[in-house]
Amino acid sequence: MSFDKAVELILRHEGGYVDDPHDPGGETHFGISKRAYPDLNIKELTRDDAKRIYKRDYWDAIRADEMPMPVAVAVFDMAVNAGVSTAGRLLQRLVGVTDDGVIGPVTLAAVRRTESDALAVRYAAERIAYYAALKGWNRYGRGWSRRVIETTLEGLK
């Protein structure tokens, strides 16, 4: 799965403009939040703008092109939903390297030594556990779980 396919999957989950008072990210459009991008006019954000942000600040930041696709898609989705550092630390704990949140050569080497489908499934389980510990679980848990499952299954195709 390429970035183009992965970002379309993300955009299906993120939807359009939302200003949910219960969402700690605040105002969002295509999943891009005002909290993460305070200087951006979120309401006027275009789909292409969102894709550029996702490529630069998430896909490239986690070095997804250097990972097996099932893992890349899962880590990309987690980075979008919970932050690049959180996504990286979760991956690093699973592959047994120092969990500093920065995906570099050591993390990538450990990822490549691990069977990718099994790692993607274990990553999904860890994502669910991460979300279940959040105070928003009662409100958003079902959607987060569906997102994890759908993303994992798409990545495994």
Brief descriptors of the model:
single chain; 157 residues; mainly alpha; Chitosanase, subunit A, domain 1; three-stranded antiparallel beta sheet; globular
Helix and strand arrangement:
Elements: H1 3-14, E1 17-18, E2 28-29, E3 32-33, H2 47-59, H3 69-82, H4 84-95, H5 105-113, H6 116-132, H7 137-156
Antiparallel strand pairs: 1-2, 2-3
Helix pairs in contact: 1-7, 3-4, 3-6, 3-7, 4-6, 6-7
Largest sheet composition: 3 strands, antiparallel
The chain-level structural class is mainly alpha
Question: How are the strands of the biggest sheet laid out side by side?
Answer: 1-2-3
**Which second-level CATH architecture applies?**
Up-down Bundle
Walkthrough of the structure:
- By secondary structure, this protein is mainly α.
- It has a single domain, classed as Up-down Bundle (Chitosanase, subunit A, domain 1).
- It is 62% helix and 4% strand.
- It is built from 7 helices and 3 strands; from the N terminus they run αβββαααααα.
- The protein has a 3-stranded antiparallel beta sheet, with no helix packed on it.
- β2 and β3 form a beta hairpin.
- α1 runs antiparallel to α7, α3 runs parallel beside α6 (116-132) and α6 packs antiparallel against α7.
- The longest helix has 20 residues, at 137-156.
- The radius of gyration is 15 Å and the shape is globular.
